Amino acid sequence: MKTGMISFAHMHAHTYADFLSQRSDVELTAIWDDDVARGKEMAQRYNCQYYSALEQFLQTDISSVIICSENAKHRDHVIASAKAKKHILCEKPIATEIEDAKDMIKACQEENVILQVAYPVRFAPAMVRAKEMIQAGTIGEVVAINGTNHGQMPGGWFVKKELSGGGCAVDHIVHVMDLIRWIVKDEVKSVYAELDTRFYDIDVEDCGIVTLELTSGVIVTIDPSWSRPKTFSTWGDVTMTITGTKGTLSVDAFKQHALYYNDRENRVQQLPWAENMDQQLIDDFVQCVLEGRAPSISGEDGLRTLEVVKAAYRSNLLKKPVLLHDPR
Amino acid sequence: MINVVIVGTGRLGLEHLNAWSAISQARTVGVVSADHNQLKEIRKRHEVLTASDLNDLCRQVDVDVVDFCVPVHLHLNDVELAAHAKKYIIFSGPLGMDMKDYETIIDRCQENHIQLHVCQSLRFSPEYVDARERVLNGAIGNPGVIRLSHRGPRLLKEKRGIFFDLGIYEFDWLRWTFGDVKRVMAKRVSRSGRGELEYALVTLRMENGVIAHVELSQTEDSLFETSFELAGDQGMITNDSKSSSPISLQSMGVASAVGEDILVKTPCQLHLEYVVDSVLAHDQDRSIYDVKQAAIIADAAKQSAETGQPVQVKQSGGVL
């Protein structure tokens, strides 16, 4: 199977490309990037062809694309790829506007191509196990979830609203939100958010707390803040404390690490030894395309989480909860 | 020398009896309880008068401080008893079961010129005291997001509600450290019968803009656990009672409890010493004002959980 990469704007593009290259049944043959220097450099690194024109890139014989462009560009890139009959793995969030996400899903349906959204944390072994335990009833009926997706402030286009769609709320609500939907198989009823810019001199929000209620009555908070200090031992975290009627389960996706007290760089660093979740994501997408099966993480999954992000912004403006209609 | 009477001989009363004996400026002159066997045991080990009625005991000996170590639902009745005695009185927190209790008890004390002390325990817990000082000294820069967690066992007979029961301590510490609260959003779930639990997630917006998140959990068989994470634009301070215990014990392959506070002076001891200092200095203690403010925040959280809406808090006068 031949595949191509659309943009290396998002840093995950590097690990995705690395894991593609490791597979014998996949060939990374083409890279498009609107940053010519970056695109040429990556094409050289991965030993493939660089294209400066997207149309030309999409005319090649690749059967799938991985899109890691800036959030606001996902729409155009997904729709163009769908029209060229390419199967698609799109970096999260699916889009910056709900209408864009709907257009993308529609285009992929019409062209009969796979649209998978990159939520790699679903593949973290700890999350897989936690989901199994919860669905087996280990902690009884789930009643509450206290989730975090903290990070360091990423800078660059991530803090330019016209490219990213917003700050930490766009960047970090969606991972935990997707995990919750996946684990408890429920949708969001109401969203309340306190968002603010308190850590950095930037034009988008860098911190907040989002309070949710699911249709079943499960209560949730998600902390998406870019609140990890520069001296923090890693980029951030994804954690959930899940309270049930028979017990409490805490899961930390990045807990499997050794600690490195590094005198050379004057810092303490986490050295992850967990199996790489990005690799599982890439493997899953490739299997999906090869077998022609439905994607594990669909465009609708991307849309549902984007709806929560948009509701959080509205709630933060209104200072009251925003109700989402039950999509089921 | 300050003369102290302890009311109640449960776990708390016995803990306070020990704590008072370590304070040189105070002596326990009496213990009040309906449990005659327990009083007999106490007389064997301590030189104290005992009685089943507080006023009886007050007629026999000069009393400066009455230390009530009784369940919270008895506080309303106790404050009436103390009104006759006109003393310094101590309640271990929480003071009441709801806002009305707090107002009634505080008003009765003010009418009768009783100096009321309530143990807001985080003000005497070394990790919280130290973290607060560092925050105030600028260690984390401008504070951004503050996360607190408090877990404890769910006791079937105590149904006063988690915001007043557990949250009151966190709300008090937040206000003590970051100032008044502007707005509260809270969600709460509870289950009764088997698997009895109460759990709440509270978001507070402080007047100075700080966003605080408080997790409160009461489940069957839970241990007491607390943690905090204080993130600011120049650093972060974290603590977790689970990972900061200096002793862990495995006995015959089973993890065993080592005791909650491995400290020379427990928060309880430090609070009693604080009361002694304020009695000796004849201070007009303002701490009761703070106790009421913490209750106002707890009440706002309760209202928010009931209505599903955020509640604006007016700290000086009550909930708007």
TrEMBL record, chain A:
Gene3D superfamilies: Dihydrodipicolinate Reductase, domain 2, NAD(P)-binding Rossmann-like Domain. Residues 128-249 form the GFO/IDH/MocA-like oxidoreductase domain. PANTHER family: BILIVERDIN REDUCTASE A. Residues 13-119 form the Gfo/Idh/MocA-like oxidoreductase N-terminal domain. InterPro entries: Gfo/Idh/MocA-like_OxRdtase_N, Gfo/Idh/MocA_Oxidoreductases, GFO_IDH_MocA-like_dom, NAD(P)-bd_dom_sf. It comes from the Bacteria. GO terms for molecular function: nucleotide binding. This is Putative dehydrogenase.
TrEMBL record, chain B:
It comes from the Bacteria. Residues 2-118 form the Gfo/Idh/MocA-like oxidoreductase N-terminal domain. Residues 129-237 form the GFO/IDH/MocA-like oxidoreductase domain. One of its GO terms (molecular function) is nucleotide binding. It holds the Pfam family GFO_IDH_MocA. PANTHER family: BILIVERDIN REDUCTASE A. This is Myo-inositol 2-dehydrogenase/D-chiro-inositol 1-dehydrogenase.
